[in-house]
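User: For a reading group we're discussing how well predicted structures match intuition. Take IraD/Gp25-like domain-containing protein. Before you show the prediction, I'll give you the sequence so everyone sees exactly what went in.
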Amino acid sequence: MDTEFLGTGWAFPPGIDDSEHVSLANGEEDIEQAIRLVLGTVPGERAMRPEFGCGVHDYVFETFGSATSALVETAVEEALLRWEPRIDVVGVSASLSDEGGGARLTVEIDYRVRSTNSEFNLVYPFYLEER
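Assistant: Thanks. Here is the predicted 3D structure of IraD/Gp25-like domain-containing protein, as structure tokens, for the group to look at:
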């Protein structure tokens, strides 16, 4: 399927491709990278757009339970609704794991690309300890 209409953007992290041009991401890959950029940015981190990002970082050091899980899920959903207009958020779930000795908050996002009606799943880890 031709996904050119979904757009093209700079690949993240930025880089140079084999032809010495800026690396680009296309279609669904561009959307996934945009979602990761929203989730990985703390509001206030960008000088020219201080409200950009996701407030989930506010809950990283909270005691994790059903209330915190709901707050994380809401923060993720609201950020994606605001900053990624190419998708509809179908569902968000947050869970805490302690695999490999390091605490990790895992957010699972189910989303639908509006223009193609295709559904995708993205699992995003928030590491609670420095790696």
